[in-house]
Design a protein that fits this description.
This protein is of the alpha/beta class. Helix 2 packs parallel to helix 9, helix 5 crosses helix 6 and helix 7 packs across helix 8. Strands 4, 14, 15, 16, 17, 18, 19, 20 and 21 form a nine-stranded mixed beta sheet that branches. The chain has an eight-stranded parallel beta barrel with strand order 5-6-7-8-9-11-12-13, surrounded by six helices. Strands 1-2-3 form a three-stranded antiparallel beta sheet. It binds pyridoxal-5'-phosphate. Pyridoxal-5'-phosphate binds next to helix 10.
């Protein structure tokens, strides 16, 4: 794969390009709303993470909930990444994209026995178990399958991170993980079970983390647990620090993986543990944009609205987290400064992509790019208001491929039936 010689998204003349491809051409060819991803940016993010930790044994398991398109999964798998999955569906996708079982970790508080069975059959690296009852279920599944289950316990380190309240996961009040003072007992129980193999210890403290210090605090707590387990003959060899590294959406100063490495690696001196990371957002957020077409302007006097063809069903983050996404015209040239709310066609007041944003006054038909939309964009999208989900395009260099077709209205009703008792004549 050739290295990028230019910035991922940049204007050349009046036109916005992703790598070597003009976004206007993609909008014309594939229509809008359309997600567009830069494969080069995804790979360069992956490589920067990988390089930062290359002095120690490590695996980067992409948290595919951020964006589970097969084209992206295959690209990352080819570069050496594994994946972090949270469902049987994600396992299916990962395997379909060619991710080897040996590079898959399974997170989540509610894995079903069917999902565990499928993952065990796929020979995954480890199950990040989040409760005693889940551990018992895993042991039952393993016994039934006649196959040892590799296990790590996700601990809740009770560490605070400065992020949106819906994105912290490592505080005691969150549903995730096993509280520290119960983890040791659970490991003792696991070590005694002939169907479980203690493989690792894991924590994931939150998402969109901009200050790396809580990772240091977390690592110290995990190492303390490892040290308490050692005299018992219990040795989890993999230390999984989770994901969460933040990115730039607005004017944040996002940390780089090297800062994380500089913080964590000194704490690991003299230990022979393998590190595992589960970054999601960091790998894909800045690599993606959502192209949307201006439909109408509405100017009631006290403010302006620009109504576009993408909506909260396509990109839920503004409605869910009040998230900021930059909006860039894909063709420069219109004059003036126009402040407007950028809203979608959905019948909810929360359906907006940007609030009070200053842009040149658009004409209907103009296309805008909603930036930094590669993570938790398409993967959180829905068909709400019976809106077919957007297409997705992956670009590498000068090449672009449609990696997911836009849904049709037929896709909306696939699998549905009308029972006989619903049918009948028309009422007068
Ligand atoms: C267990 C686990 N690992 C990793 C991630 C990825 O987080 P991020 O996308 O912020 O890197 C998540 C996100 O919810 C998660 O729950």
């Amino acid at each position: 794969m050739t290295r990028l010689a230019y910035d991922t998204f940049c204007y050349r003349g009046k036109d916005l390009f992703v790598e070597g491809v003009k976004l206007a051409d993609l909008a014309h060819r594939f229509g809008t709303p359309l997600y567009v991803y830069s494969g080069g940016k995804i790979l360069s993010q992956f490589e920067s993470f990988d390089r930062a930790f290359n002095s120690v044994p490590h695996t980067i398991c992409y948290a595919m909930k951020a964006n589970s398109n097969l084209g992206i999964l295959a690209l990352l798998a080819k570069a050496g990444a594994g994946v972090d999955i949270v469902s049987g569906g994600e396992l299916f996708r990962a395997r379909r994209a060619g991710v080897p079982g040996s590079r898959i970790v399974f997170s989540g508080v509610g894995k079903t026995e069917d999902e565990m069975t499928a993952a065990l059959r796929a020979g995954i690296l480890m199950f990040n178990v989040e409760s005693g009852e889940e551990m018992d279920a895993l042991a039952r599944v393993a016994r039934r399958a006649g196959k040892l289950a590799p296990l790590s316990i996700r601990v809740n380190p009770n560490v605070a991170v400065d992020t949106h309240r819906h994105m912290t996961t490592g505080k005691a009040e969150n549903k995730f993980g096993v509280v520290m003072n119960q983890a040791e007992a659970l490991y003792r129980r696991a070590a005694k079970n002939p169907w479980l193999r203690v493989t690792g210890v894991q924590a994931h403290i939150g998402s969109q983390i901009l200050d790396v210090r809580p990772y240091g605090e977390t690592l110290k707590k995990l190492l303390d647990l490892v040290d308490r387990l050692a005299p018992l003959g219990i040795a989890p060899g993999i230390l999984d620090i989770g994901g969460g590294l933040g990115v730039v959406y607005n004017s944040e100063r996002a940390p780089r993986p090297i800062q994380l490495a500089e913080l964590l690696l000194p704490l690991l001196k003299g230990r022979s543990l393998k590190l595992l990371f589960e970054p999601g957002r960091f790998l894909v957020a800045e690599a993606g944009c959502l192209l949307t077409k201006v439909l109408y302007r509405k100017e009631p006097g006290h403010k302006n609205f620009v109504i576009v063809d993408a909506a909260m069903n396509d990109l839920a983050r503004p409605a869910l987290y009040d998230a900021h996404h930059p909006v860039w015209p894909i063709r420069k040239g219109r004059a003036g400064r126009y402040v407007a709310d950028v809203v979608g066609p959905i019948c909810e007041s929360g359906d907006y992509l940007a609030k009070a944003r200053a842009l040149p006054r658009p004409e209907p038909g103009d296309v805008w790019a909603v930036m930094a939309a590669g993570a938790y964009g398409f993967s959180m999208s829905s068909q709400y208001n019976a809106r077919p989900r957007a297409g997705e395009v992956l670009v590498v260099g000068n090449e672009s491929r449609l990696v997911r077709k836009r849904e049709t209205v037929e896709d909306l009703v696939r699998g549905e039936t009308i029972p006989s008792f619903s049918r009948g004549g028309n009422r007068p």
